[in-house]
Write a structure and sequence with these properties.
By secondary structure, the protein is of the alpha/beta class. Helix content is 35%, strand content 16%.
Length: 393
């Protein structure tokens, strides 16, 4: 079955909106990641784990804005916190107590990462972390793993990506996924500032990294004075200490985003006091880091409210639901990967799968990524599996 064979539930409202959008937005929207051919429906509203499109189709949201909405849509405490914050002033040219409080929460949860800086997205967090690694080490080269996504910053895009200068390759070494020999070779041959690593990269399949590889990577980078930058923008929801904590390692810098903002724009860079001192503006050699909306109190307060209600018990419960969902999907014959509340369905025709799931009232990410939110329970997972059983393949 191909995309053309599927009866796509796009009604007149979505088609009309798309026609208008293409007159102002290339492709009809502002994010490549949400596009599915011929064009995606447009959202109207959301509540809990449900989302409704402009044609009135109601779906179980397994996308949650690419995993950012840990409590689903319009979560009361987050709405109240964000509303109160914006009523007091959406942003200031001064720091606020909100950023101090959120940094304290993250420091308590991760333990080793006591100091933080905030940005507006995961992309910004990674970009700033790499700049910090270069400033700390005095080296230029970054090592990254092929097939992994770390945002839209030039230096972390795949080789040959459109619009990226060919000369950028001189300071970026791309190695095969989990190829320790290639990493070691790069570190021995070049002046490497850091290795950028995601222990369960979505674009590469959402398959958890081998524990032996992770530990060896940490040992080899430490031995050579190369910083290990752990990208946890997607995976932080797996454990309060981050996915890396389940491997028993401590990176040098960690980047967070998505769930820590309660659904609002956010990014964060964390590390030890010594490492993060590179940002201290009282130092003559400080690394500048600005951003008009960095650490804005609306995102900070929304994040505080979201994390307050996503404690260890909630994390464990949601991870268990994710385990149930993956097992049930495998029993239905789907190829699945992931861990905890993150799930990835593998299909040779992801756009076809997306529409087939949409027909059954299920909203996935375009590449088959799915995630759970706290309003869901065992009955919700049962209903999701019942609908997947009717997904045409």
């Amino acid at each position: 079955m191909t995309i053309a064979d599927i009866d796509k539930p796009i009604g007149p409202a979505s088609d009309e909106l798309y026609a208008r959008a293409t007159g102002r937005l290339p492709g009809g929207n502002s994010r490549t990641t949400v596009f599915v051919p011929p064009h995606p429906p447009y959202a109207r509203r959301g509540a809990g784990y449900l989302v409704e499109d402009v044609d009135g189709n109601e779906l179980i949201d397994l996308q949650n804005n690419y995993t950012a909405l840990i409590h689903g849509h319009a979560y009361g405490p987050v709405v109240e916190a964000a509303s109160a914050a914006i009523a007091s002033g959406a942003s200031f040219g001064l720091p606020t107590e909100s950023e101090v409080r959120l940094a304290g929460i993250l420091g308590e949860r991760l333990g080793w990462a006591t100091h933080w800086r905030f940005a507006n997205s995961g992309t910004e967090a990674v970009m700033i972390a790499l700049r910090a690694a270069r400033a700390i080490t005095g080296r230029d080269v970054i090592v990254r793993f092929a097939g992994c996504y770390h945002g839209s910053y030039d230096a972390v895009l795949a080789k040959g990506a459109a619009g990226v200068p060919a000369g950028l390759d001189a300071d970026v070494v791309e190695v095969p996924l989990e190829d320790l020999d290639a990493v070691v070779r790069a570190m021995d041959e070049r002046e490497v500032a850091c290795v950028l690593f995601d222990a369960m990269p979505n674009r590469a399949g959402l398959r958890p990294a081998d524990p032996d590889f992770v530990k060896a990577l940490r040992e080899e980078t430490r031995r050579r004075g190369v910083l290990l930058v752990q990208d946890e923008v997607l995976t932080y929801r797996i454990a309060l200490g981050g996915l890396h904590s389940t491997y028993g390692i401590q990176p040098d810098l960690v980047t967070l985003g998505k769930v820590i903002g309660g659904g609002l724009p956010i990014g964060a860079i964390g590390g030890t006091a010594e490492t993060m001192a590179v940002f201290d503006p009282t130092r003559p050699d400080a690394l500048p880091h600005g951003g008009t909306f960095s650490a804005n109190p609306v995102s900070m307060e929304a994040g505080i409210a979201a994390l307050r209600d996503f404690d260890a018990a909630a994390t464990e419960r949601l991870n268990a639901l994710g385990d149930r969902l993956r097992a049930g999907l495998a029993d239905l014959g789907f190829e699945v990967a992931g861990r905890g509340s993150l799930v990835r369905l593998h299909d040779p025709e992801p756009a076809r799968l997306w529409w087939a799931a949409y027909r059954q009232g299920l909203l996935l990410c375009g590449n088959g990524l799915a995630c759970l939110s706290t309003p869901m329970d065992d009955a919700t997972v049962d209903e999701i599996l019942r609908r997947f059983a009717d997904v045409e393949r």
